[in-house]
Amino acid sequence: MDKMSEKYVTPPVLDYKNIHRQSSALSPIVFILSPGADPAFDVFNLGEQIGFKPGVKLKYMALGQGMGPKAAECIEIGASRGLWVMLQNCHLLPSWLKTLEKILEKLQKPHPDFRLWLTTEPTERFPLGILQRSLKVVTEPPNGLKLNMRSSYAKITEESLADCPHPAYRAQVFVVAFFHAVVQERRKYGRLGWNVSYDFNETDLRISLALSATYLKKAYENKDDQISWGTLRYLIGEAMYGGRVSDSFDRRILATYLDDVAIHRLPLPFKRAGNILSLSSF
Predict the structure, then answer these.
(1) At 56, is the secondary structure helix, strand, or coil?
(2) How does DSSP classify residue 24?
(3) Are the CB atoms for 197 and 144 separated by under 8 Å?
(4) Cα end-to-end distance, the chain, whole Å
(5) CB 90: neighbour CB atoms within 10 A?
(6) Which residues form the Dynein heavy chain region D6 P-loop domain (predicted)?
(7) Please, are residues 83 and 59 in contact by the beta-carbon 8 Å criterion?
(8) What's the half-sphere exposure (Cβ side, CA atoms, 13 Å) at 254?
(9) Is pTM beyond 0.85 here?
């Protein structure tokens, strides 16, 4: 460990800018998904940063029955105009993937800015021809609380933190990220963790952080001494994460974690030692 350094034993956080640099107009980027992983937001965020705004220069759709012709049209337009096209859940339309393979084979000189992003769960029906010509990226939730939180923080920009001026917001970001890591980690214990397997993912985390920012920013602008933690707790615990939970005992576990970690600990006092931030009472 001392000689080889941490990078050889710690899984790297996906660098989407580097993925884009390694790709080309003739090489699709294929994300092979695992439970809890969703690269769509990270691709959207990358597009925002380099001028491919979602809905404008980044066209995206979730594949399903009857969506093949529309997806083919998007690829044709994107290849000619230099757009990004993202097709999600390719495993749900395996019968059309052979058509996609033929479309890619016919692409001779697409616009150099064109990129095709594909997401799929592991499936034997995914055409080998597409895989051989593509840049393949395996996405999976980080293993362990530390890596899970590191992954969450890697996607939080300084601009987004500065957007909410409330002094409790950064502490709220920490506890929501910690809560998200805990519910993710329980899944590895099977039925000892959750009675039912739930698909908690990054979307839950992002929306919970957005809700927190909205409420705290409003409280700051209105100069409210009291923050509506009860409302925020309901939205995060009951609507976002709790909305996925169907088992009554799992719901009790979720509520207990949220009450203990994310509510009763706010605001959290941070102590700084050099470049390290630590919690003084956590």
Answers:
(1) coil
(2) B
(3) no
(4) 29
(5) 25
(6) 26-138
(7) yes
(8) 27
(9) no
